């Protein structure tokens, strides 16, 4: 499926399989490896690694809108500013998501892809985008949803709250990296996918450095 066809299907809600998308949301939280095992079956039946439709993407956008509404109400932001924040965050999610997808897509095809295989295989851009969306789900649930319920503890001055706030961000990044690793690890034409897990190390160094510098990775609205 091409990117243009994928984009057009966003507006054909009646053709989207939301039931399967919600199944993936549930199992990404409970057993992400099961989702990727199912992706292997999808490859065998549909001859592509990427999803058939953007239902999962629309669920993520809906989640972003709900998260924004919760934070904006909490910080008493209303009116046109509320709409502006939502449009900005959805736009950033799509733009940054495409950029991150491009980086992983290029890195895997350039450095992790096996050479000399009988059938030439490459990472599909849409599949790389699917992997990003899967990883972002866990990132959002930890960094935004879990953080929301911990605001009374985090939204305070002091080194303990600073460390705790940055640690939540670090944990969400670790989950993002892990889900990303699982997504590329199932591709039989990639090797040394465990290199992706090494991204946790610079993330940990950054966390400690920012804590000692008194810098918080997440700021309230």
UniProtKB/TrEMBL annotation:
Record keywords, A-Z: Membrane, Transmembrane, Transmembrane helix
Pfam families named in the record: UNC-50
Transmembrane segments: 20-36, 56-78, 90-112, 124-146, 166-184, 196-215
InterPro entries: UNC-50
Membrane-related topology note: Multi-pass membrane protein
Subcellular locations according to the entry: Membrane
Recorded GO CC terms: Golgi membrane
Family stated for the protein in its record: Belongs to the unc-50 family.
Official protein name in the record: UNC-50 family protein isoform 1
Organism: Galdieria sulphuraria
């Amino acid at each position: 499926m091409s990117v243009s066809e994928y984009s057009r299907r966003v507006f054909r809600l009646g053709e989207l399989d939301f039931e399967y998308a919600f199944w993936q949301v549930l199992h990404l939280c409970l057993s992400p490896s099961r989702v990727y095992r199912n992706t292997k079956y999808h490859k065998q039946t549909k001859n592509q690694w990427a999803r058939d439709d953007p239902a999962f993407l629309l669920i993520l956008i809906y989640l972003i809108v709900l998260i924004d509404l919760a934070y904006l109400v909490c910080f008493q932001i209303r009116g046109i500013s509320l709409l502006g924040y939502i449009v900005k965050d959805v736009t950033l999610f799509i733009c940054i998501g495409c950029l991150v997808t491009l980086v992983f897509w290029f890195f895997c095809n350039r450095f992790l892809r096996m050479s000399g295989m009988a059938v030439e295989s490459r990472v599909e851009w849409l599949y790389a985008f699917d992997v990003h969306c899967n990883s972002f789900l866990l990132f959002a649930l930890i960094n935004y949803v879990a953080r929301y319920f911990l605001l009374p503890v985090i939204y305070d001055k002091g080194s303990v709250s600073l460390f705790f706030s940055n640690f939540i961000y670090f944990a969400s990044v670790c989950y993002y990296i892990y889900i990303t690793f699982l997504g590329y690890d199932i591709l039989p034409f990639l090797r040394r996918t465990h290199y992706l897990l090494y991204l946790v190390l610079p993330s940990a160094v950054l966390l400690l450095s920012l804590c000692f510098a008194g810098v918080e990775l997440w700021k309230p609205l």
